[in-house]
Amino acid sequence: MPVPLDEYPVHQVPLSMRYMETSDKNAYDRSIFQAHDRTGEILLITGLGVYPNLGVIDAYACVRRGDRHVAVRASDALGDDRMVQEVGPFRTEVIEPLRGIRVVCDGDEHGVGFDLTFEATAPPIEEPHHVQRAGDKILLDACRFCQVGAWNGVLRVEGDEYAVTSDRWVATRDRSWGIRPVGEAVPAGRPADPAFEGMWWTYVPLRFDDFAVVLVLQEDPDGYRTLNDCTRVWRDGRLEQLGWPRVSVRYAPGTRTPTGATVSGTTPDGKPLRIEVESLLAVPLHVGAGYGGDPDWSHGTWHGPAFTERVTYDVTDDAVAGRVMFGVVDHVARATCDGAEGWGLFEHGAIGRHDPSGFADWFAVAP
């Protein structure tokens, strides 16, 4: 059973949760949830976002089982009441702030349905303010927090039903808001100078019995780190910063598909802390879920009123497999830390050039 979280230290409840008042078309406010049963046989990713300056609300759910990837997505006009988090078959209900959330998809006719309740097992961790530029132009200006927990409820996929119980099903969630590219593409304008050569991204939220760890890193093509945070939060709310972590990602030969990673951090008292992460199943976020590089769907795009559709993919299809190295991929993660076993998410993208990984250009792969 998740532990009571009534004694959060006040400073650990995210304080920057505010609606960003801006006229930028790329303003957004979005929640993402992941769920898996630790077997590596199934992974659900679902999310809902609002785009106030585009007048759009949308949501999606992706489930991978074996080589089959099923996605349902919906969008509609954004209403006046921002407390109503509902679009098409999707809705999100806050049961108790930062402790319990219900997510529902009545999309069985489209292949995916669920009624799931998120139960926090650790306080949320607020990540550093994330800013990314191309020259003087701001591409991303966002805040985010992450939280781990457990799921209860039911998940239905193409006629099969899964009883979701907190003793097996691991939950991760994040909420982010600010500015990032969304909606229809803007006119090209002046080319970026220097041109975008790629990015290296790693996000690893893990749940252990006594603590949670959240790692988030981003590096430029030359390895310069633009975002660095690795935090451990104990069940009683104590926080530990784990220094400047070194991450060694293991890729399958001839690909950029990770099989696992070693994270080497340092505790506040100077002791080394090593986390081994293993990938058990992967869902590319740019195949059906609408994230950067998805040619089929883009968040915040207007598709007309009451839009809902279903798509399915065979991940062994060359047309699908060829996309993987050009986007960010979520993996079911098993981890070990100081002899403890943990579960969660391993999200990674090595896109374009990354010198420390030995990727010299957009098409380089692991030996």
Structure summary, number of beta strands: 23
**Shape by Cα distribution:** globular
- The low-pLDDT segments are 8-19
Mean pLDDT: 91
What is the domain total for the residues? Answer: 1
Q: Tell me which CATH architecture applies here.
A: Beta Barrel
Going by helix content, strand content and strand pairing, the class is mainly beta
Topology order in helix (H) and strand (E) letters: EEEEEEEEEEEEEEEEEEEEEHEE
* Helix run count: 1
N-to-C span? 44 Å
Work out the radius of gyration: 20 Å
**Secondary structure: helix percent:** under 10%
Q: What would CATH call the class? A: Mainly Beta
Largest sheet: 14 strands, antiparallel
Summarize the topology:
Elements: E1 27-36, E2 42-51, E3 56-65, E4 68-77, E5 86-87, E6 90-96, E7 100-105, E8 112-120, E9 125-126, E10 130-134, E11 137-157, E12 160-164, E13 170-179, E14 198-207, E15 211-219, E16 225-234, E17 239-241, E18 246-251, E19 258-266, E20 272-284, E21 307-314, H1 318-321, E22 329-337, E23 340-352
